[in-house]
Amino acid sequence: MNQSETKFPENFLWGGATAANQMEGGYLEGGKGLNIADVLPGGKERLKVLKEPGFNFEINEKKYYPNHEGIDFYHRYKEDIALFAEMGFKVYRMSIAWSRIFPNGTELEPNEEGLAFYDRVFDELHKYGIEPVVTISHYEMPLNLVKEYGGWRSREVITFFERYVNAIFNRYKDKVKYWMTFNEINSALHFPIMSMGFSIEKGEDEYQPIFQAFHHQFVASSLAVKACHEMIPGAKIGSMIISAPVYSYDCNPKNVLYAMEEERIFNYFCGDVQVRGEYPSFAERFFKKHNISLDIRDGDLKLIKEHRVDYIGLSYYMSLTEKKDKTGLDLTPGNLLKGVKNPFLKASDWGWEIDPTGLRITLNKLYDRYQVPLFVVENGLGAYDKVEEDGSINDDYRIDYLRSHIEAMREAIGDGVDLMGYTSWGCIDLVSASTGEFSKRYGFIYVDKHDDGSGTMKRMKKKSFYWYKGVIESNGEVLLKSIRR
Ligand code: BG6
After folding, report:
1. Which CATH number is 3-473 given?
2. Is the CB of 378 under 6 A from ligand 1?
3. Which residues, 6 or more positions from 47, have their beta carbon under 8 angstroms from its beta carbon?
4. How far is the CA of 437 from the centre of ligand 1 (A)?
């Protein structure tokens, strides 16, 4: 096929993505309970908390917690949604904060004030014809479940999750058609705190608790798929995985094999269970090698087999390059997902390697393997932005990044991949998940809020705002022209 002939499908779902804990603020309003994100400090210390064992999940009054205030979407959602509508969003990916609906996670009845808040948000979106795409659990669970149950270590959490899922499906069945279960479920292999609600204990072998918690999440995810299909006919529910193709550093077969093994366990393990409905054949040897023994109860495997996701939501930020023996090689310092430096790639200000071709590769690999629709629900460039004296923000670097990734998606469609849509990450500036910074900005919309907590919260349109509007208006045809205001 001639590559330039490829077009995005007519019904392609263009939009932007955020998560409740990184933007809502109002951390104690509307009856909300504390959640994991509320106890994660801002700045460099957050990375330490995520990577090192033994975190205590307590708030320290001397520290700054940026997620408490976020960007105040809780009060400013109307203004923000109007801006999304101005860009022409067809969809808006957001998450529901579990701790707004069940403040402690264990209540028998949902919190009406929390439910009413999301009713208002969905109604506002629909006012502009924007469809919500909702992540049920995005790096956020009630802190009480973390402290009393050890998060997803405990099987009991499945019951609490099921109650939460039933409550939101029941309430929003007429308002939400696109759902996803766990954000970046596979991220737990590198930092279980945010997605699984526990810290590895000092001296504890990490694999056993992480894979047991995965099993609990797989069961919970299948229960959610089952409930969604029963309660909301016509709705689609997906998984959400970080997708990062793993390249071998060179053509030494030992390194190729190593890269393949890393890729299987990181990129495919969760997808295999959630999409194919069974543990992959490579799991047995992996479990044996790492002394992992899973508590799988009667009926679990049948449930997982029978209730599989309809599509794969994925985040894509970088590829990984791996070598078995890394002695003497530069590692990628900012890269949470490990890997060695790839000499062919440039990196962002935070050291994340920029690789649009990797997106085309990963979309092809996922589609070859699973043959279900794919949805890129996160992708973007975290960068420092400068507000000029005249108020303009000339983020050409972001436009370049997004353009090259959108081109890569278009080529993947030309390759035969069934791609549903694209919601770029952090369409409005928000708190970074890994570093708790405001200065790591992804948005088309600038928010005047800074790492020390100062700022007016004023919203300002960046150059990329106008550019993305043009992309959506032309259904991805106008990628090269940058549109000035
Ligand atoms: C994904 C998460 O890992 O990447 C988001 O789903 C996150 O929550 C995004 O914000 C970008 O990462 P960061 O650390 O730059 O905010």
Report:
1. 3.20.20.80
2. yes
3. 336, 434, 435
4. 11
Ligand 1, atom nearest to 431 Cα: 16
Active site residue 278: no
Q: Are 359 and 405 in contact (CB under 8 A)?
A: yes
Which of 425, 428, 440, 442 maximizes ligand 1 atoms within 8 Å of its Cβ, making it the mutation to test the pocket?
Answer: 425
CA angle 162, 156, 209 (to 5 degrees): 115
Residues 415, 364: contact at Cβ < 8 Å? yes
What confidence tier does 484 reach under pLDDT thresholds 50, 70, 90? very low
Query: Which one of 131, 378, 407, 411 is the catalytic residue?
Result: 378
Residue 354 CA, chain-centre distance (Å), reads: 18
pLDDT tens digits along 208-238: 999 999 999 999 999 999 999 999 999 999 9
Assess whether the C-beta atom of 425 lies below 6 angstroms from ligand 1.
yes
pLDDT in tens, 87-129: 999 999 999 999 999 999 999 999 999 999 999 999 999 999 9
pLDDT digits (tens, 9 = 90+) for 411-430: 999 999 999 999 999 999 99
What are the C-alpha distances in Å from 56 to residues 38, 46, 66, 99, 211?
13, 13, 18, 19, 21
CB 53 within 8 A of CB 199: yes
Q: Which two tokens stand for residue 236?
A: 């689609």
Query: Which amino acid belongs to residue 103?
Result: P
Nearest to 100 by CA among 147, 143, 44: 143
The closest-lying atom of ligand 1 relative to the alpha carbon of residue 139 is: 8
